[in-house]
Design goal:
The protein is of the alpha/beta class. The chain has helices at 12-20, 29-34, 86-91, 93-102, 119-128, 140-146, and strands at 24-28, 55-59, 80-85, 105-109, 134-136. The protein has a 5-stranded parallel sheet with strand order 4-3-2-1-5, with helices on both faces. InterPro entries: DHFR-like_dom_sf (IPR024072).
Length: 150
Amino acid sequence: MKIQFISPESTYSEVQELRAHTDCVLIDQKKLNQKDQSDSFQVDDENFDIKKQPLRLIAISLHDLKPHWGVFNDRFKRNTMVISFDDEIQDNPRIVRFLEERGVALLMCKRNKKGLLDYEGLLRSLTSLKFSSILVEDNIDLIEELTPWA
């Protein structure tokens, strides 16, 4: 089996160590679009233990969600949560049903003043679900949005 790296191969072990000590990995739509959709979030099957894997969090507009993407069809799909706007969730019952049928969790979030995802509210929601650590995967825009003081 070929290993699909989520980062350059030279940092694979460091990334896996971080993943082993985090509750969830957060990516947004831009990052998901950059991935090979059939192999999204793949890890080394030989050493894979689902109990040690963080929840896959995907911040995405439901209008842009592609049902054929690997994250919604792989054997770890039940370890995935889609984060989207509350109005989009209410307006897209077919997509919501598709996710529910696959065991993919759905988290409603509000928009901020710019009409984008309210990450502050998202972090409060994740904290209330007992998540205490989040790994943001390779997206400087997302990191800046989450850390406005940086």
